[in-house]
Amino acid sequence: MNAVSDLARALQTAPTASLPSSLFGLPDQKPHERVLLAADEETGLKAILAVHSTARGPAFGGCRFWSYDNELAALNDALRLSQGMSLKNALANLPFGGGKAVILKPAAIKDRTALFAAFGRAVQSLAGAYITAEDVGTTTADMLGMQATTQYVSGIPRAGAFGGDPSPKTAYGVFVSIERGVKLVLGRDSLEGVRVALQGLGAVGWHLAEYLHKAGAKLVVADVDAAKVQRAQEQLGAQAVGINEILSADVDVLAPCALGASLNIQSIPTLQAKLIAGAANNQLATAADGDALQARGITYLPDYLVNAGGIISVAREYRGEGEENAVMAEVALIANRVAELLDRVKSEGSTPGRVADAWARSLLVKPS
Questions:
Q1: Over the stretch 44-69, which tens digit does the pLDDT of each residue have?
Q2: Catalytic residue of the set 30, 46, 88, 100
Q3: Strand partners, 45
Q4: Do residues 332 and 309 lie in contact, with contact meaning Cβ atoms separated by under 8 Å?
Q5: Cross-strand partners of 50
């Protein structure tokens, strides 16, 4: 494992708008505790492992495998995602801090197993300060393979024990959040006939679509993969729209389940939904975009509150505490936190994004 960086070259060539303002953390925030750059020439690995906070315990968060425009875009993603994990784990009352890793997807993958083994060595080098699991672009097979090089990995199918793909748990947490939000914000006692737009039908988005369909919701869907859209039409009676139309669809609820920053200065004026709750991380491009949603009468349920089902699942698995019914019951409690958030918003006269942020940061201390 060779720890190297091409940041100097990237700083000279990357567009100014894409540059993070600091290599150590996000604007107006405390620096991250640790940011590791790891590369392995033989496998083509280039990875960024960001440890935001270990105040509550070891940093826990998934590994993203993605094609980035440049290395600094990857760094910015790692910094944003890892901070989000600190807030997510705190609100979920887990004894873990926040961290995240991103692997810059090579143009050609020589040996995926070897690449993830090299990544596992990078994780192991942090000696337990960071625990990894699945995220966008990674699979349970990747996590299984990493067991050969690190003990600090979860989201793994385990014979005779709880474990495996956390996507259904993430989807269930979003589902119960939508259920509660529809009741408290839209004043409807069930999801029967409620129109929900799903941006993205990946591992989490598809499970969410199934939950919503079973509850009687009417689905409007979009995905870059036409086969997934067709499957949703055939199996779930979904209405298909283009990826450029999904955010502005005429629906009651919008569920962003693709990549982040979809709620921004361009998209917000076009939204028709009155409630937003989805699985994608970092849905707001900026904190001010949360204010803009509120000004338009749109209730945004922060992603790190509603999409915590996956981390609840892999955390319980990692600690050897998991059991399917008990974990699902714990994930269901996210709905109660949605209700508490909306109560706090009313009493504080602020926006959901800012209230949730302050609430989570107040919990970034060692659990009692």
A1: 999 999 999 999 999 999 999 999 99
A2: 100
A3: 40
A4: no
A5: 35, 100
